Amino acid sequence: MFSYYLKLSLKSIRKNPYLSGLMMIAIALGIGASMTTITVNYLMSSNPIPHKSEQLYYVQLDSWSPHFPAEEPNEPPDQMTWRDANNLMDAQQAYRQTAMASSGAVIEPPDRDNKPFMASLRLNFSDFFPMFDAPFLYGRAWEYADDKAGNYVAVISKEINDRVFGGENSVGRPITIAGQQFTVTGVLDDWVLVPRFYDVTTGAFKGTEDVYIPFAMKELMQLPNGGNTNCWKSPEGEGFEAFLQSECVNYQMWVELPTQADKNAYMAFLNAYVEEQKALGRFPRPLNNRLSDVMTWMENQEVVADDAQMMMWMAFLFLLVCLLNTIGLLLSKFATRTGDISLRRAIGATRSAIFSQYIIESALIGVIGGLLGLGLALLGLQGIKQLYGSFVSDLVELDLTMVMLAIALSIVASILAGCYPAWRACSVPPASNLKTQ
Q1: C-alpha distances in Å from residue 216, one per residue of 147, 265, 357
Q2: Is the separation of the CB atoms in 252 and 101 below 8 Å?
Q3: Mind spelling out the 3-state secondary structure of 160-221?
Q4: Cys staple from 85: which of 99, 289, 303, 378, with CB 3.0 to 4.6 Å?
């Protein structure tokens, strides 16, 4: 019967193409607007590293002022001091760990015909690469011994490798960064990380950095700060070293803890560390350390912006308006067919059969409207890309999940919209209606 009802639905749509087209356009507009905002929110809130997101933890220490919290209500700073980052790294209490920071520097290509250019830097430890599954095209990460020795080694992105070395395997070759010669140990492959959860303070939807060098280079080369720098009191002294030893926060810390027991042990270590620092006159606030896994940290930092969520709900309201218009159009369409309905009822068709036929017709209109809505969603996403630039390019792609969701949403919406008109249609008294014909 389904195929028979489907044929009847196609004939009905061809018989009244203008009214059917208006319904399809109404559904397409609602689906297009909804899927544009749903896709952006879906990708903004997706798990960027699902197989180990519950093993990676962002570390927070409450080293802030005794008079007020870093953030309300009673939240510790979202970053830590240079001193604490190095102390935690020296302790080596986690399975893997990396302190990190962002910076920038000029790269001087060896070919003098190519002009020097500015590049983004990530200062980190060697564990950074296996912790966050950084993909390598050539070579590998440097060793922890290089971190401790302050060796001038670097991992560069594929883009930098193409620009400086013409895409060749550059492992072992020198590269000049901020006037200092580094040795390339590895070249990363294309690395799309959405959201870029490891440093949301500088932007969760920025691309990964151009160059990665040991964390110690911050002090050795006196590199500038990137991202947010916050201080609750002034440094004690003048100069770069005094700033590093101050209570200013500008550094991130991630640890990999495979089990709950590892997490408990590391939290106990953090508490003991803070108590030790309290004895030295630091950490004036009550104990308030945090370990947040990837998804908890992104939620805490509100990676999905409030305005994006508001736009999504407004799009759903627009879809509802489109469905109300569709209901009105279906009522008008089915009202013109009362004669056919009464005749079929008179020769034995049941109400459920009539209802099923018109629900299938509504679903077919929904499928066609949903496909048109996907096209509108693609146009909407491209519009967002043009409006906000390339940094959102990874947020404006419809994957298979979103395509299936769009089709399902359009079918469900059209069926819901068709329920009342179909019920009205099959409730027509056949005898009284036939007498008037």
Answers
A1: 7, 27, 72
A2: yes
A3: HHHHHHCCCCCCCCEEEECCEEEEEEEEECCCCCCCCHHHHHHCCCCCCCCEEEECCHHHHC
A4: 99
Q: Which two tokens stand for residue 429?
A: 């008294």
**Nearest to residue 292, comparing CAs of 47, 46, 53, 41?**
53
- pLDDT over 90 (residue 181): yes
Cis geometry, peptide bond prior to residue 109 (ω within 30 degrees of 0): no
Give dist(CA 104, CA 249) in Å, integer.
Answer: 18
**Per mean pLDDT, which of 62-71, 97-106, 343-352 is the most reliable?**
97-106
Q: H helices within 78-154, ranges in order?
A: 82-91, 128-131, 144-149
3-state DSSP helix/strand/coil % of the chain, to nearest 5: 50, 15, 30
Question: For residues 223 and 102, what is the distance between their CA atoms, to the nearest angstrom?
Answer: 10
Residue with tokens 């606030």: 285
Q: How crowded is the C-beta side of 179, counted as CA atoms within 13 Å?
A: 4
What contacts 24+ positions apart, CB below 8 Å, involve 301-306? 301/78, 301/200, 301/201, 301/204, 303/44, 303/45, 303/195, 303/197, 303/200, 303/204, 304/41, 304/44, 304/45, 305/44
DSSP string, 263-319: HHHHHHHHHHHHHHHHHTT---SPP--EEEEHHHHHHHTT-S-HHHHHHHHHHHHHH
What confidence tens digit (pLDDT) does each residue in 217-252 have?
999 999 999 988 999 998 988 889 999 999 999 999
- DSSP 8-state assignment for residue 53: T
